[in-house]
Amino acid sequence: MATYTLGDIKHDWTVDEIRDIMDQPFNDLIFQAQTVHRMHFNPNEVQTSTLVNIKSGGCAEDCSYCSQSARNYSGLEKEKMIEVQKVIEQALVAKERGATRLCMGAAWRNPNKKDFPRVLEMVRVVKELGLETCLTLGMLSDEQVAQLKEAGLDYYNHNLDTSEAYYPQVITTRTFQDRLDTIDKIQQSGINVCSGGIIGMGEQHKDRAELLRTFGNMRMHPNSVPINLLVPIEGTPLAHMKGKTDSFEFIRVIATARIVMPQTFVRLSAGRMDLTDEAQALCFMGGANSIFYGDKLLTTENPEAGHDEMLFEKLGIKMQQNKKAMAEGKKLAEQTTELTA
Ligand code: SAM
Ligand code: DTB
Ligand code: SF4
Predict the structure, then answer these.
(1) Which atom of ligand 1 is nearest to the CA of 107?
(2) Domain extents for the chain?
(3) Residue 298 C-alpha to ligand 2 middle, in angstroms?
(4) Cα of 302 to ligand 2 centre, how many Å?
(5) What local confidence, expressed as pLDDT, does residue 333 receive?
(6) Which ligand 1 atom is nearest residue 196's CA?
(7) CB atoms closer than 10 angstroms to residue 189
(8) Pairing of the two strands 192-194 and 197-199
(9) Residue 178, φ and ψ in degrees, nearest 5
């Protein structure tokens, strides 16, 4: 018997409570998750973020899922950081398609001093365009966090990926505690935290419950929790995991995240190429209310924007509106002229 009320914001989850939620009959789980979802959100609205890879490949970390680690043999070329102009171009496309947030990712263990001013500039110009800004750059110094706050960064993404116990099986060049420390710094600065995980790396059911417990017991729940289905990439140590994850298990994790963190945006993230439209619809029923939107993730494919629009249409889902840009009343054409002049 549950000793809490569904929909309450609580920070003292036990792993047994989370497993009881996750393991109940599928229909009961989806019903509970949808009930909680409706207490805090419009059930027919989904937030959309578009990814831009601002620095590709050659990363010093050894994340065994990632095409961008210098230790993996995915065939991805190491590239220099892209120009601000390129970010503007991609931001304009994302905005025109209706995305509300631009998430800029870099294949770094941490940003270096030389590149950082350009990152700050990217935050400023994307904000100018009326999009919300998100960065994911690895670990940050206190000074860098303060500079990002000053530049007006809205969100910082820093995933825990898996349970503390399974973490060393996936990454050895940093610890779970390193990740928690960075998240804590971001949270203290007042920048919104986006932190999630990956399902399908060989972790067990209990590791997924443990990961959700870590998020659920944070002093403040992350503002958004991306749940990624592993994209198995040739040349990475996890390439053999292709086709190994049951989509119902993935949907169970999404629905459990919704119940554990009632006010958090739960993002149906990487891996949608391997999920049917019906499986994705079950994720939305289970309380997912955010996606990565746009034809590409960082280095791999994502469903085409047009396909997502068709799916939303079939489900009667509306994309969350870009209220900031609308309030400013700026026309895209005017901004394009201003920023590309
Ligand atoms: N280097 C930074 C870091 O690791 O924090 C930012 C970029 S990194 C690519 C962002 C996140 O993408 C990772 O933490 C991981 O959760 C996710 N990711 C990377 N490769 C993935 C894959 N093949 N499948 C699913 N998720 C993946
Ligand atoms: C997140 O949780 N997933 C995104 C974003 N945050 C940075 C990245 C997914 C990457 C998938 C594999 C690739 O495209 O390289
Ligand atoms: Fe580097 Fe991030 Fe990829 Fe890990 S996930 S190898 S830190 S880019």
Answers:
(1) 1
(2) 42-340
(3) 6
(4) 10
(5) 44
(6) 16
(7) 17
(8) unpaired
(9) -55, -45
Within 62-204, residue ranges assigned H as helices are 84-97, 116-128, 142-151, 167-170, 176-189
Mean pLDDT within 174-199: 98
What are residue 48's DSSP bridge partners? Answer: 291
Q: What is the pLDDT of residues 84-99, one digit of tens each?
A: 999 999 999 999 999 9
Q: What is the pLDDT of residues 302-327, one digit of tens each?
A: 999 999 999 999 999 999 997 665 56
Catalytic residues: 59, 63, 66, 103, 134, 194, 267
Instruction: Using the predicted structure, report yes or no on whether residue 330 has a pLDDT greater than 70.
Output: no
Backbone angles phi, psi at 321, to 5 degrees: -80, 150
**DSSP symbol at 207:** H
CA angle 279, 285, 290 (to 5 degrees): 85
Residues ≥6 apart with Cβ < 8 Å to 298: 51, 53, 56, 68, 105
Give 42-340's CATH code, choosing from 3.40.920.10, 3.30.70.3270, 3.20.20.70, 3.40.640.10: 3.20.20.70
Token pair belonging to 95: 């905005």
* Gap between the Cα atoms of 216 and 270, Å rounded: 21
